[in-house]
Specification:
It contains 18 helices and 17 strands. It is an alpha/beta fold. A hairpin with a 6-residue loop joins strand 1 and strand 2.
């Protein structure tokens, strides 16, 4: 087995060879891509094999600046290296970090600063020399590179330190480039996220409140279908806001300056519904004392919204199917065919598929209205939006009642989040209206909410859920108070809370707070 030749003097490596080695190291750093640890480990390999500067170690300052960590080391696994750290000023490595000056230790046995934390050498302390030089960026020491070698009285440690300093400079330039690339990448990601949020805000109708993922899907669907005349079926439980979605589709479309006509089909019997929808001629039935236009005529070139279409009678379903297919209809008591160009949006809280199976709803009509379905989630499935909606309703009813209600207490928030909201957004709105009416100190307290919310779990002051969830509720309450005091200004709120604007921006995004709602310059 060939024995490795140990060079006793750096001078045995001539200048041309040194340049060749340094070039090799530069190529490793340039071509290593994003694998920083791999590149630094290869640099140590070159120093070991080509210059006999053995068992090298590269350390870097932790992001917090509190400790020095090993980034790459010979004969040491990643797990082992993570267990060895230094403090600034501790040992030779810590001293180099503290002073920014290189150090050579001819004999480690005679240097009290030398800690030998690795405990991995196969030679004694008396047989080792140690060299450590700083890695600096713009006069800031960010790490060190060190090597040990078998002790040799004739070794020119100063020359080896000079070569190591050149390598340290090359590593510093590489780290600077990597950090700048990481900063640029983060800036691009932040900008991409900002633009995506702006785009989503543009898609979000102004009349709908909610930032949960399920609602963002709804906003995207509204944006997709608004530009066309496609028939839309809005599905969801009672109180989820189906009419608001219909409004949003109409006012985001090219028909926005045309009529938006709505009919609650469940509120009318069959005869009245037909008259309301198609109109009637004078004398068509008892009480028809004059000719009346139907809602379809009124909505011509605009939009007609048929709420609770699942309650249509069989006869009305046939007539509506003709409207959808032929765009034709007749008034009650008339044989004259009329045309309509109204866009039709329907909504229901019923299971139409089961109604079709039972023969209560025509299958052909179902397929005609189910061209573009939009499913509105119940409030219990969009817990993230409860506080946004509650804040919105507090502001709305405070203005309406001319009261200065500023916030919702943490126990009240806990109760609302814990409640299952069978009546959905409409029930939440009614609860907030009652709470604002009862509030006398500018705060919605838990005891202002209806008895249906007064459960032992939800009324607990500490709250339910995980520690993170409870902490988020508390943080959200504090940040909203600060935003209200600071007119929605994030920087001012950060100063008010004695923190940084960056942290406030992060928390506002994480907790789903719309800071613009607390600015007096809205609209």
């Amino acid at each position: 087995m060939a024995k490795k030749t140990i060079l006793s003097h750096s001078s045995t490596v001539n200048t041309a060879q040194q340049l060749e080695i340094l070039y090799e190291i530069s190529q490793v750093l340039v071509t290593a891509g994003s694998q920083q640890q791999e590149a630094l480990a290869r640099v140590l390999d070159i120093l070991d094999k080509r210059l006999s500067l053995a068992r090298g170690t590269i350390t870097l300052l932790s992001p917090s600046g509190s400790e020095i960590r090993i980034e790459a080391a010979h004969d040491l696994s990643l797990q082992q290296s993570r267990q060895i750290t230094y403090r600034i000023g501790e040992g030779v490595t810590g001293k180099v970090m503290e002073t920014g000056k290189p150090m050579t230790v001819p004999k480690v046995s005679q240097e009290p600063l030398f800690l030998n934390r690795f405990e991995r050498w196969n030679v004694t302390k008396q047989d080792l020399s140690f060299i450590c030089v700083p890695i600096s960026i713009d006069n800031d020491v960010i790490g060190t590179i060190s090597v040990d070698r078998p002790f040799d009285e004739s070794a020119q440690l100063e020359e080896e330190m000079r070569i190591l300093s050149i390598v340290a400079s090359m590593i510093a330039n590489d780290l600077r480039a990597r950090r700048q690339a990481a900063i640029t990448q983060q800036q691009l990601e932040d900008e991409n996220l900002r633009l995506r949020n702006e785009l989503e805000d543009r898609f979000r109708p102004e009349n709908i409140v909610g930032n949960s993922n399920t609602m963002r899907d709804v906003y995207h669907q509204i944006h997709q279908v608004s530009a066309s005349d496609t028939t839309v079926l809005i599905r969801g439980e009672s109180g989820t806001g189906k009419e608001l979605v219909a409004h949003a589709i109409h006012f985001s479309s090219s028909r926005s300056d045309r009529p938006f006509v709505k009919i609650n089909c469940a509120a009318l019997n069959e005869n009245l519904l037909e008259s309301e929808l198609f109109g009637h001629e004078k004398g068509a039935f008892t009480g028809a004392i004059q000719t009346r236009k139907g809602r379809l005529e009124e909505a011509n070139n605009g939009t007609i919204f048929l709420d609770e279409i699942g309650d249509f009678s069989a006869a009305t379903q046939v007539k509506l199917l003709r409207v959808l297919q032929e765009r034709e209809f007749e008034r009650v008591g008339s044989n004259r065919t009329l045309k309509t160009n109204a866009r039709i949006i329907t909504a229901t809280n019923r299971d139409l598929e089961k109604a079709v199976d039972r023969g209560q709803f025509r299958q052909d009509l179902y397929y005609r209205i189910n061209v573009f379905p939009i499913l509105l989630p119940p409030l219990r499935d969009r817990k993230d939006d409860i506080l946004l909606l509650a804040d919105f309703f507090v502001e709305q009813y405070s203005k309406r009642m001319n009261k200065d209600v500023r916030r919702i207490s943490t126990p009240a928030i806990n109760m609302m989040v814990a409640y299952h909201w069978p009546g959905n957004v409409r029930e939440l709105e009614n609860c907030i209206e009652r709470a604002v009416l009862l509030s006398s100190d500018g705060v919605v307290h838990a005891y202002h909410l209806p008895p249906t919310l007064q459960t032992s779990d939800s009324s607990d002051t500490i709250g339910t859920g995980s520690l993170t969830e409870r902490t988020n509720l508390f943080e959200r309450d504090i940040i909203i108070d600060a935003l209200k005091r600071c007119n929605g200004n994030l920087a001012a709120a950060a100063r008010d809370l004695k923190t940084t604007a960056r942290i406030i921006r992060y928390k506002v995004k994480e907790l789903g707070i719309d800071a613009r709602r607390y600015s007096k310059k809205k609209g």
